[in-house]
Design brief:
- This protein has 286 residues and is α+β, with helices and mostly antiparallel strands.
- The protein has 7 helices and 15 strands.
- It folds into 2 domains: 115 residues, Aminotransferase class 4, branched-chain amino acid transferase, N-terminal domain (D-amino Acid Aminotransferase, Chain A, domain 1, 2-Layer Sandwich), CATH 3.30.470; 154 residues, D-amino Acid Aminotransferase, Chain A, domain 2 (Alpha-Beta Barrel).
- Strands 7, 8, 9, 10, 11, 12, 13, 14 and 15 form a 9-stranded mixed β-sheet that branches. A 6-stranded antiparallel β-sheet has the order 2-1-6-5-3-4.
- The radius of gyration is 19 Å and the shape is globular.
Length: 286
């Protein structure tokens, strides 16, 4: 495999960054997880705009154009002969003197890595082995004023602590300080009850997921299913008729159980998974 490190393609075993890099020392870095289908990145514009927002939040002026970033991603795909892949694009503040306070000017480290994934779309295969099993955890989402939830940074301590709590489950269900369900450790949540389809309201501390946005657009454009955004307790999810998670690699993943209570997928989950696959097929394989 070959990866991109600071503008150069290098063999994976030689792809290193400095131990003094602030992304390593402090998690002082922004990143995006991308999905390539048929040799092209899905929702590139949405991902790069979120990356820029994270860099603005961190005040990292990296000076690399969107076009240059896209070229680096494409070069990694081409160098490794990858059509369908997971891609991670990271921008750190780079190496600075060893103190917490960032210096005024960044010398950014830009890294692109990738690995092969199954084909997506109508004839594709999911990356997950089976439906998700959720567990409500004690770890809470920090308030937005403490740690902006819309910033996708290298500091994933909150999600790591949440995942460390899991027992016979593979995704953590996190709440805010008031006990309202926000999201999974690496995923956004939807569920169905007799009032329609629900997802946590945007003013909760949750990451504005790109796949969540795509699925929301599909719901509004191609179905007559009412979508409600609100504040929900864990028991609302446990009592749901269906539930599913979204993220870039999982796409639409049904939920089998919540806190050991069977929920499962169903017709709404299946419909949205099919609509998502059809969208990918049209854009990338048609």
């Amino acid at each position: 495999m070959q990866y991109h490190v600071d503008g150069d393609l290098v063999p994976a075993e030689a792809a290193t960054v400095s131990i003094r890099d602030r992304g390593f020392l402090y998690g002082d870095a922004a990143f995006e997880t991308l999905r390539a289908y048929g040799g092209d990145v899905f929702e590139w514009r949405a991902h790069v705009e979120r990356l820029e927002r994270t860099c603005e939040t961190l005040d990292i002026d990296h000076g690399v154009s969107d076009a240059d970033l896209r070229v680096r991603v494409q070069e990694v795909l081409d160098a490794n002969g990858l059509d369908d892949a997971y891609v991670r694009l990271s921008i750190t503040r780079g190496v600075q003197p060893g103190k917490l306070t960032p210096g005024p000017e960044a010398d950014p480290t830009v890294v692109v890595i990738a690995e092969e994934l199954p084909r997506g779309g109508i004839d594709g295969s999911p990356v997950w082995d089976g439906p998700a099993t959720l567990q409500t955890v004690k770890t809470r989402k920090p308030d937005d004023a403490a740690l902006p939830a819309d910033a996708k940074t290298h500091n994933y301590l909150n999600g790591i602590l949440a995942r460390n709590e899991l027992v016979d489950a593979d995704e953590a269900l996190l709440r805010d300080a008031d006990g309202d369900v926000a999201e999974g450790a690496t995923s956004n949540l939807f569920f169905v009850d007799d009032e329609g389809l629900h997802t946590p309201i945007d003013d909760l501390p949750l990451l504005p997921g790109v796949t969540r946005s795509v699925v929301t657009d599909l719901i509004e454009a191609e179905t007559d299913i009412p979508l409600r955004r609100g504040r929900y307790a864990p028991e609302d999810i446990r009592e749901a008729e269906e539930a599913f998670l979204t993220n870039t690699t999982w796409e639409v993943r049904p939920v089998e159980t919540v806190d050991g209570v069977e929920v499962g997928g169903g017709p709404v989950t299946n419909l949205l998974a099919r609509l998502f696959d059809q969208l990918v097929e049209r854009r990338h394989y048609g």
